[in-house]
Amino acid sequence: MNALGIIFSDIYDWNMSELASHRSVAAIPFGGRYRLVDFTLSNMVNSGLNKMCIITKSNYRSLMEHVGSGKDWDLSRKKGGILIFPPYALGDNHGLFQGRLDALKRVLDYISSSKEKYVVLSDCDMIYNINYKDVIKFHEEKNAEITAVYTKTNIDRESSIHKILYTVNEYKRANDILVYPITEGEHNVGLNTWVINKDFLVILIYDAIAHNLKDFSYDVLAANVKTMKIYGYEYDGYYAHIDSLKSYYDNSMELLCMNKLNSLFYAKTGPIYTKIKDSPPTKYGNNADIKSSLIASGCTIEGSVYNSIIFRGVEIGKNSVVKNSILMQHTTIGENTHLDSIITDTYALVKNDRVLLGYSSCPFFIKKYSII
């Protein structure tokens, strides 16, 4: 497809201090065996994009290890493929970008030299399964300069401050854009994904450099909604926004509903790809009891798991009970231990005879390499 993909890995890292303290937002584990970046990459690959880059800001080692050469997404190729841009200084800036527009300034040469007609910009904190061919077709039909992807859904005041809301007319042209408002009810919520004419984007970046503009949402979208041809493309499939530890927990647990699991991973638009690991099948002990849970490969489970998500390489000891919890890679749970509404980061260790109780409204988080 005649489009360049640009992925921002860390726009909202300040919202998720627990999950993103030692990794980028794009590398946050999700759904038992995936990372958040997998959904964005898979959408682009399934849509026919074969040239893309990931712009990082900090804590990007695990992201680089996960993506590698891109071969698991069929992006390891001589022409096109995927590049990861670490932070680097640009003029008076000293490495870390401040907003999408500031990040785009640092890859201006890469964008300018590309031969693609369109650019697809996307964050990693939104999870959905879409075909960008439909978005670009809509973009062309409307002769738009910018097309924003949105979904119509209900939001509350707490989550609205992390969202971009669009008001569109009968022709789907945006006539108002609210950036991080305080509101509630049903709105057109942006999925932090845009299709832009490449030449037009280059002009926007030069203008941003000339006027020291940094934020794409405020300085481009909201500031020019009346003068630019900004249109909205409505997406009506499964969607989840990971913008806090609580939303991570809630959206993860929704995957235990088969309808939502199927609508995300088995949509007609294509599968979700991730890094392949040659781990053995999970081993279940004679007294293991598993109900309503997602269990990845490479685990050893001797106890009971109910309504939980277990990532690769997790070990759960005899007579232990794990309920309503998310255990990330290589977590070890000892014997005679009880967990309820707990999130463990990778390589956490909970020893024998422990009782850890959180709440579904406030899950308890155990940091990476912690020993309880």
Task: Set down the secondary structure blueprint.
Blueprint: E1 3-8, E2 29-30, E3 34-35, H1 36-46, E4 51-55, H2 61-67, E5 81-85, H3 100-105, H4 108-113, E6 118-122, E7 126-128, H5 132-141, E8 146-155, H6 157-160, E9 164-168, E10 174-179, E11 185-197, H7 198-211, H8 216-221, E12 230-234, E13 239-241, H9 245-254, H10 258-265, E14 283-284, E15 289-291, E16 294-295, E17 300-301, E18 304-306, E19 309-310, E20 315-316, E21 321-323, E22 326-327, E23 332-333, E24 338-340, E25 342-344, E26 349-350, E27 355-357, E28 364-366
Parallel strand pairs: 1-4, 1-6, 4-5, 8-12, 14-17, 15-18, 16-19, 17-20, 18-21, 19-22, 20-23, 21-24, 22-25, 23-26, 24-27, 25-28
Antiparallel strand pairs: 2-3, 6-11, 7-13, 8-11, 9-10, 9-11
Overall structural class, as computed from helix and strand content, comes to: alpha/beta
Rg, alpha carbons = 21 Å
Strand content: 25-35%
- Residue share in helices? 10-25%
The figure for the number of domains is 2
Q: How many β-strand stretches?
A: 28
Report the mean per-residue pLDDT as an integer.
Answer: 92
The CATH homologous superfamily of the largest domain = Spore Coat Polysaccharide Biosynthesis Protein SpsA, Chain A
The number of distinct helices, counting runs of at least 4 residues, comes to: 10
CATH class of the largest domain: Alpha Beta
- Uncertain runs are none
The description of the largest β-sheet is: 9 strands, mixed
Name the CATH architecture of the largest domain: Alpha-Beta Complex
Distance between the termini: 50 Å
CATH topology of the largest domain: Spore Coat Polysaccharide Biosynthesis Protein SpsA, Chain A
Instruction: Tell me the overall shape.
Output: globular
